[in-house]
């Protein structure tokens, strides 16, 4: 089912009042999160609107506190906002940091999500024009990313930067990301681009299907698969059904 959340930017006085009224803590903090899911501690009597959209909750951020912490950390306000939004969303998903082990786990998840880049594209565009992207993939709870968007929105760049970052990590290189936690990968499979093989008598669609079949037969639980527009070598409806 689709999910939604509310994101509120406000002043430090409002955050302090909310802390005092709902947490019994009379101080201003950088971010607050209020659950709406009963399994994460919310009121079980809360009823979601009848529109098949699950409301995760509300994240409230003190903008003055964000600016203050950005200066202390030596990075931009936008970067600090990214950290606080991720922090708040993790709270909505059930993560906490009351105990040291919980804090360590939550911090690890935050770091896994931050600011990957494609070094070659960034170099050609200039660092001011390239927008970093976050990625989280895990065998246990997040094995698949389905990426959609209009033409020229950067989908293929995102796919390639993930593969390139993983490859660099496997050879012990620095990676183009603010932070990363990357496990050992045994193989990287890619199905990118579209071209026919006239010498072998294979159409564009046949080449796509042959390469995809090879990936499915040889991939393991430790493999990274990058598939870009599978089925575009045939009709729209057939390609959509296959993808």
Automatic annotation (TrEMBL):
**Molecular functions (GO terms):** ATP binding; ATP-dependent DNA damage sensor activity; metal ion binding; metalloendopeptidase activity; mismatched DNA binding
* Pfam families found in the cross-reference section: MutS_V, YbeY
- One GO cellular component, as annotated: cytosol
For whether the record's keyword set contains ATP-binding, the answer is yes
Q: Where is the signal peptide?
A: none
User: What are the DNA mismatch repair proteins mutS family domain coordinates in residue numbering?
Assistant: 223-239
In the record, biological process GO terms are: mismatch repair; rRNA processing
> What SUPFAM superfamilies does UniProt report for this protein, alphabetically?
Metalloproteases ('zincins'), catalytic domain, P-loop containing nucleoside triphosphate hydrolases
- Report keywords, A-Z: ATP-binding, DNA-binding, Metal-binding, Nucleotide-binding, Zinc
Cross-referenced PANTHER family = DNA MISMATCH REPAIR PROTEIN MSH1, MITOCHONDRIAL, DNA MISMATCH REPAIR PROTEIN MUTS FAMILY MEMBER
Q: Which HAMAP family match?
A: Endoribonucl_YbeY (MF_00009)
What's the name of the protein?
Answer: DNA mismatch repair proteins mutS family domain-containing protein
Q: What is the originating organism of this protein?
A: marine sediment metagenome
Q: What is the lineage of its organism?
A: unclassified sequences, metagenomes, ecological metagenomes
């Amino acid at each position: 089912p689709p999910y939604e959340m509310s994101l509120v930017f406000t002043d430090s006085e409002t955050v302090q009042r909310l802390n005092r009224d709902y947490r019994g803590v009379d101080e201003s903090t950088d971010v607050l999160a209020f659950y709406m899911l009963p399994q994460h501690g919310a009121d079980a009597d809360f009823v979601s609107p009848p529109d098949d959209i699950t409301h995760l909750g509300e994240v409230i951020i003190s903008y003055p506190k964000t600016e203050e912490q950005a200066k202390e950390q030596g990075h931009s306000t936008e970067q600090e906002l990214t950290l606080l939004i991720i922090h708040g969303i993790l709270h909505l998903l059930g993560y906490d940091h009351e105990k040291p082990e919980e804090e360590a786990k939550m911090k690890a998840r935050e770091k896994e999500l931050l600011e990957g880049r494609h070094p070659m594209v960034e170099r050609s565009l200039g660092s001011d024009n390239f927008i970093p992207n976050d990625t989280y993939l895990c065998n246990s709870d997040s094995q698949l990313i389905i990426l959609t968007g209009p033409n020229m929105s950067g989908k293929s760049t995102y796919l390639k930067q993930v593969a390139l970052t993983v490859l660099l990590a496997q050879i012990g290189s620095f990676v183009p990301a603010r932070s990363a936690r990357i496990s050992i990968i045994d193989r990287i499979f890619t199905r990118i681009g579209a071209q026919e093989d006239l010498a072998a008598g294979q159409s564009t669609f046949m080449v796509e299907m042959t390469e995809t079949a090879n990936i499915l037969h040889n991939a393991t639980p430790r493999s990274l698969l990058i598939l870009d527009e599978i089925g575009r070598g045939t009709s729209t409806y057939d390609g959509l059904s296959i993808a």
